[in-house]
């Protein structure tokens, strides 16, 4: 079903590398518009954007281990709605599953 996601917007965390890159390319091939999140590597994010077919790809930078950084990215994207979040990026701090509080993330 080529272009079955046309005009739908997907936010992919950790999009520029590894599994995130493969996810972005697959969604792009189906016609989705993308918001590609990256943490540090702007060059990899920009490279990802240039290889996509859809011309309306947006880049969003944030450290997902920092509530302040996440809030800043959300503020920059506040006028952009998206249909699906693909939460690909992994952030791990050594705490039992389900018990991580917001204060531990900062």
3D structure, described in words:
Strands 3-2-1-4 form a 4-stranded parallel beta sheet, with helices on both faces. Helices cover 34% and strands 16% of the residues. With 106 residues, the protein is α/β, with parallel strands linked by helices.
Features:
single chain, 106 residues, Rossmann fold, four-stranded parallel β-sheet, 4 helices, 4 strands, globular
Please provide the ordered H/E string of secondary-structure elements: EHEHEHEH
Radius of gyration: 14 Å
CATH topology: Rossmann fold
Count of spatially separate domains? 1
Count the strands? 4
Q: Any chance you could write out the topology, listing elements then pairs?
A:
Layout: E1 9-12, H1 18-29, E2 33-38, H2 42-51, E3 58-61, H3 67-76, E4 84-86, H4 102-105
Parallel strand pairs: 1-2, 1-4, 2-3
Quick structural gist:
This protein has 106 residues and is of the alpha/beta class. It is built from four helices and four strands.
């Amino acid at each position: 079903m080529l272009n079955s996601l046309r005009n739908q917007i997907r936010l992919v965390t950790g999009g520029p590398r590894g599994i995130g890159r493969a996810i972005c390319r697959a969604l792009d091939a189906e016609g989705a518009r993308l918001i590609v999140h990256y943490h540090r590597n702007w060059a990899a994010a920009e490279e990802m954007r240039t290889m996509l077919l859809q011309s309306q790809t947006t880049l969003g930078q944030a450290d997902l281990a920092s509530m302040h950084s996440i809030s800043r990215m959300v503020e920059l994207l506040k006028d952009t709605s998206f249909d699906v979040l693909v939460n690909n990026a992994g952030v791990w701090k050594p705490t039992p599953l389900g018990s991580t509080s917001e204060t531990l993330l900062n």
